[in-house]
Amino acid sequence: MCFLSIGILVRAQNESSEIKINHECPDSVRILWIGNSFTFFNDVPKMVEDMAKLNKIPVSTTRILKGGESFKGHLQNPELIRQLEKGGWDYVVMQEFSSTPAYSTKFIAENIFPYAAEIDSLAKKYSPEVETIYYMTWGHKNGNIRQTDYPLDDTYDLMQDRIITTYIDLAYENGGTVAPVGIAWRNIRDKYPEIELYIDDNFHPSLEGSYLAALTLLGTIIKSEFIPIPPNSMDEETAVILYKEAINAIK
Fold this sequence. Notes:
There is one protein chain. The chain is α/β, with parallel strands linked by helices. It has helices at 37-40, 44-54, 71-74, 78-86, 105-111, 113-126, 156-174, 181-191, 207-222, 236-250; strands at 7-10, 17-20, 29-35, 59-65, 91-94, 131-135, 177-179. The strands form 2 sheets. It has a 5-stranded parallel sheet, with helices on both faces. Helix 4 runs parallel beside helix 6 (113-126). The longest helix is centred in the middle third of the chain and has 19 residues, at 156-174. It is globular. The two termini are 29 Å apart. Mean pLDDT is 91; it is low at 1-24.
């Protein structure tokens, strides 16, 4: 058994990231991450890798991450196409820009669905056994910070409703699986408001928010409960609550 990480070098909080490739491990579970700062904040892929390792699941990871990027933008990146065409992926985790899944139905149909379908199709063409995982994100703390005139994203609950629907539809239409991070996030907000899931900008995740995402993603991938690894700075009670709600959201 071996364990491998292929990491990123983040230039700045919301700027593009580079791929840093170490070596291949043929007997590991191979995961391709496609996303933006909601994935690379607090290094969610590394959290997933570390917990997988503890549970004796060898993982190799490649990340195509760029701050503020969408599926449409990612498809302009030749490295993404190269990685998809290389094949051999067990899972491709896909995360859209944080605001747009809460936009109008017409916008989503024209600007998200076609590009998600293209990435999904390429993944399955070159990795016939792949499972595409749609990483359902969370609403911004007080509604969409982009302040659009669309009326169904101007509060957290309205925005979260839209995001949940969009990701469920994306997975349904493309034959993928939803990682229900946004559902777990809502449950924490409703039941444990003392747990702060956001940093001061009211949309990026705190350490607790990223840990909740990592728990939900790993549970979605392995489809079972597992031994979690909370960050050293997190108190045990909070860590237990986050794990419980992540598992409950998956069931």
